[in-house]
Amino acid sequence: MSQSISVENLRAWYGDHLTLKGITMELEANRATAIIGPSGCGKSTFIRCLNRLHETIPHGRVSGSIKLGDEDLYRMDPVDVRRVVGMVFQKANPFPTMSIFENVALGLRIGGVRSKAEIIERVEKSLRMAALWDEVKDRLREPATALSGGQQQRLCIARALAIEPEVLLMDEPTSALDPGSTLRVEELVQALKSSYTIVIVTHNMQQAARVADKTAFFLNGELIEYADTAIIFTKPSDKRTEDYVTGRFG
Ligand SMILES: Nc1ncnc2c1ncn2[C@@H]1O[C@H](COP(=O)(O)OP(=O)(O)OP(=O)(O)O)[C@@H](O)[C@H]1O
Asked: Does this model's pTM top 0.90?
């Protein structure tokens, strides 16, 4: 069972530049939430706060609170946070010198799994969850870079799932993919959301409409509107949301 994330009055800075201006929202467990908004509105910054990556950026700073269930993320060890909050980036970033198998196994080994049989089993399970197993089962020792872009992205998803996170953050996971691979990743999000809390940043409004249960519209570092996806796209209550989703700006 995954856990919800409660964000309260989250502010984030790059040096003196206040980028998130007090975000309060609840990201529900076992749901996919889309974050939409024009370029530069703070979507990536927001999800990078959710796994404490923002503070690793020079001069990156946050205030406010983020809780996973009852636990304050900012009181946890950041390494533990990144174990329970997995992330997939815009551009697939497999470890280029490692095999397909090792890309998924590495996190398990770092996490202290010693049994070879268990590692083999969990690698297979993760690759199956990422809908990649059938395509790679006979080539597990080949370098990850031998895979297509869409396969590499699913490999990164398998790598994130292997360590059994509760939350999966996805930062424009399909923007570098062709339509076929995009569809496969979207199907994957649909299938995974019953087990994880998924937060997906996307520029693609059809994608948000297809995969997300709830959608949050950000503008200039503020959360303008947050509601069921169908409401955001058909009956938004804020004029700025309506202008954005109907393509009037952004
Ligand atoms: N490393 C950084 N150093 C300084 N400022 C940054 C850095 N990263 C982002 N910013 C600034 O923070 C603001 C929000 O950026 P962010 O990347 O979160 O937006 P975004 O909504 O994800 O944009 P996009 O859709 O273009 O990816 C922007 O004004 C951006 O210039």
From this structure: yes
Which residues, at least 6 apart from 190, have a Cβ–Cβ distance to it below 8 Å? 32, 211
* pLDDT for the residue numbered 2: 83
Is the minimum distance from the CB of 44 to ligand 1 under 6 angstroms? yes
Q: Supply the ipTM of this predicted assembly.
A: 0.97
- Phi/psi at 184 (nearest 5 deg)? -65, -40
With the most atoms of ligand 1 within 8 angstroms of its CB, the residue from 13, 16, 17, 224 to mutate is 17
- How far is residue 136 from each of residues 140, 176, 197, measured CA to CA in Å? 6, 21, 27
Give the number of other Cβ atoms within 10 Å of residue 61's Cβ.
15
Residue 72's CATH number: 3.40.50.300
Record the tokens describing residue 170, joined without a space.
């996805």
Q: Which of 19, 55, 171, 249 to mutate to test the pocket of ligand 1 (most atoms within 8 A of CB)?
A: 19
For the chain, which residues score pLDDT lower than 70? Answer: 1, 250
Predicted pLDDT at 248? 83
Q: Is residue 218 part of a domain?
A: yes
For residue 86, give its domain range: 5-95+166-245
